[in-house]
Amino acid sequence: MLPAARRRNLTALLVWLWLSVAASPLQAQTPAPADTVHKYEVPGQAKRWYQTKAVRATAIPVLLIGYGLSTINGNGIYSSYDAQRDLHRHFPNFHTKVDDYLVLTPYLELAATTLAGVESHNDRLNMALVIVKSELIFGAAVMALKYTTNIRRPDDSNMHSFPSGHTAQAFLAASIVHTEFRDKSQWYGVGAYTLATSVAALRMLNNRHWQSDVVAGAGIGILSAHLGYLTHRNRWGRKPIGRSIGHVSATPWQSLDATGLRVVLSLR
């Protein structure tokens, strides 16, 4: 059982991290000169904190993680104990292993959609790099929380219930699908998130996780994917082969009875 003091510390740490991420773009932002593309923007006008990319990327997952923390064990308006009791009442003998296979189906959707020729937001190389970074963030976060919170699973099998790794993995993959294909159709993301939600529900129905585990797991999965994109500043394969050493210009030149060609080499 997670002590109330530790739960409050985790919640405070989560809020502090979110505010730090949200504030960082404002500290680093510098006014950009006006150009023809952004002619309707006011030069030098900074975005408000709630309009920054970091806030929009982290707000929903942070709310999910915070709600999950608030319902651990018997806490909250509708606690994890309340949810588990209601599930047992309506599905007393439910058991399936479908969730063990369903967890990776959003990635199967990603592969099938890409092979079908649907243009993604990133090319395959950069998409793969984002996935690798997101998976590393997800893995580190889930394992660290499992071994620090020490919450017993509903089936009493071990003390590594919080958060749900299956749910986090499914929502990470669903978030990748949504980001890559939302410009083509929102239905790709709807399908992926439906699959991920099914994984979360089955983890609870199988008595493997509490409500707090799957809700926080969903937030961690989405946040891991968003951090993977936010940190992917340098897109591989986009730079031309070879490097430009400068600029060469040639202009006619004349002086008294002499004519010629002036060549100027500007080195970078």
Explain what this protein looks like in three dimensions.
The chain is mainly α. Helix content is 57%, strand content 7%. The chain has 9 helices and 2 strands. A two-stranded antiparallel sheet has the order 1-2. A hairpin with a 2-residue loop joins strand 1 and strand 2. Helix 7 crosses helix 9 and helix 8 packs antiparallel against helix 9. The protein is globular. The protein starts with a helix and ends with a strand. 31% of the residues are buried.
Characterize this entry briefly.
This protein is 57% helix and 7% strand.
List the helices and strands and how they pair.
Layout: H1 4-28, H2 53-70, H3 80-90, H4 98-102, H5 105-115, H6 124-149, H7 165-181, H8 186-205, H9 211-230, E1 246-255, E2 258-267
Antiparallel strand pairs: 1-2
Helix pairs in contact: 1-2, 2-9, 5-7, 6-7, 6-9, 7-8, 7-9, 8-9
**Order of the strands making up the biggest sheet:** 1-2
Structure annotation, total helices: 9
Query: What's the total count of β strands?
Result: 2
Main beta sheet strand tally, sense and closure: 2 strands, antiparallel
Shape: globular
The rounded distance between the terminal residues' Cα atoms is 62 Å
Mean pLDDT: 81
- Taken as a percent bin, the fraction of beta residues is 5-15%
Radius of gyration: 26 Å
Order of helices and strands: HHHHHHHHHEE
Query: Low-confidence parts, pLDDT < 50 over ≥5 residues?
Result: 20-41, 239-248
What fraction, in percent, of the residue positions are helical? 55-70%
**What class do helices, strands and sheet pairing give?**
mainly alpha
